[in-house]
Write a structure and sequence with these properties.
12 helices; six-stranded antiparallel beta sheet; Rossmann fold; alpha+beta
Length: 404
């Protein structure tokens, strides 16, 4: 959990210092810097912004760097500094580290904001990242496999772009890379499939809360990005000519996806004079069936269902969905526990009162830290129904002050 946060030169946040509690509310007008504070926490955790990937877009004007530093529970410290050219310095407990994953492990962040409400209609990347966030935190071996896979994929695509005809030496080189890709892809798929299967009951429970009318009609499916029953290198060899023409690799772990399906209710019988005609069950992408408001609830269910699953992995041999109270009691007995941080950006503008009530009540039962932003103070009353204490701040032109 973040105990103290310091931000320097991020957008309109010149020098910001915040002493945090389990639940933190930031009130302020549009453009005051509320979202920038959440962006700073996300940057510290993920090494990138959820608004722009180029540091020059979020580093304060006329400043060479942005710095975010946090003191976590158990006296741990993490920090990140980004320069205009994207050069990055990372520190863990005052020591320089060279991979963002070292900080990400210490500070898991889950973002629920308006910009994520279109992931059902967007490409596969955002949905794949949704699954991979879980896999990263639940399967320690996943990250190294993914990094190695991406390195080989980059080399393969670079070679494919050079020419539509490869020499014998290039073909041998490609064959070696493909075998490596196949080895990494098999393990990546194994990790993803295990986590996806564990995620299913938590998602179903979340849907039952947020979209009870569709509780038996919405389901998840996972696509590996290739035929997982065959070695990937064999499939890449079969498609080599097409890949050469296109200049990139069309199948593999980098094309994996998670889909949400909608099914019509169980078959109903329509009696005729001669026989009973069984109507078929219709299966469709949920994005093509649900309303805009229902899609928001679905995406909220996707993200919210990840938290209890992630928390349960820190418990010994928990295989069934755990309710919030039982989960918190079990975690309180552990000597070492990493608290996830949930970032809610202006969520009152995206969810109705019922959905917001379910979201807040669920979060309040889980051992996680919450940072939420709002245009008005009305959200304080809702929060006080579930948290015995919350820290309330006011943001104005990049300056943060306490309202406690």
């Amino acid at each position: 959990m973040i105990e103290r946060l310091q931000v320097s030169h991020l957008r309109n946040l010149d020098q910001l210092s915040l002493k945090a509690s389990a639940c933190n509310i930031i009130i302020g007008d549009n453009g005051s810097g509320k979202t920038s504070l959440l962006e700073a926490i996300f940057l510290l955790s993920r090494g990138k912004s959820f608004r722009h990937h180029q540091p020059k877009r979020y580093i304060q004007h006329h400043q060479p760097t942005v710095t975010v530093h946090a003191t976590l529970s158990a006296d741990r410290t993490i920090a990140i500094q980004k320069q205009l050219d994207a050069t990055t310095v990372l520190r863990l407990n005052q020591n320089t580290v060279y991979t963002q994953s070292a900080l990400t492990e210490q500070l898991p962040t889950l973002l629920i904001d308006p910009s994520t409400m279109d992931m059902l209609e967007q490409g596969s990347a955002s949905r794949r990242q949704l699954l991979d966030w879980l896999v990263f935190h639940m399967k320690p071996g996943f990250h190294s496999q993914w990094v190695s896979y991406q390195r080989l994929l980059k080399q393969r695509n670079s070679l494919l772009k050079q020419s539509s005809h490869l020499s014998q030496n290039q073909l041998k080189e490609l064959e070696s890379w493909d075998k490596g890709l196949a080895s990494h892809a098999a393990l990546i798929h194994h990790y993803r499939e295990q986590v996806f299967n564990a995620w299913q009951p938590y998602f179903a429970k979340s849907i039952a809360q947020l979209l009870p009318f569709y509780a038996n009609q919405l389901s998840l499916s996972y696509n590996a990005g290739f035929d997982a029953k065959k070695p990937l290198d064999e499939q890449l060899n079969e498609r080599l000519n097409q890949d050469l023409q296109l200049g990139y690799t069309r199948i593999g772990s980098h094309r994996a996806d998670v889909h949400v399906h909608w099914r019509s209710n169980e078959n109903t019988s329509k009696q005729t004079a001669d026989d009973a005609l069984q109507l078929p069950v219709l299966k469709e992408q949920a994005a093509n069936v649900l309303s805009r408001g229902e899609k928001k609830l679905l995406i909220t269910a996707l993200r919210l269902s990840q938290l209890p699953l992630l928390l349960s992995t820190q418990l010994p041999d928990e295989r069934e969905p755990v309710d919030g109270t039982r989960l918190e009691n079990m975690i309180s007995k552990l000597d070492s526990f990493i608290t996830p941080v949930v970032l809610l950006d202006d969520i009152t503008a995206e969810l109705d009162d019922r959905a917001l009530d379910i979201l807040l009540s669920t979060l309040a039962q889980l051992p996680c830290q919450v940072f939420m932003t709002s245009l008005t103070t009305e959200v304080i009353g809702l929060v006080n129904e579930y948290w015995s204490y919350s820290s309330v701040f006011h943001m104005k032109q990049g300056v943060l002050s306490s309202l406690d």
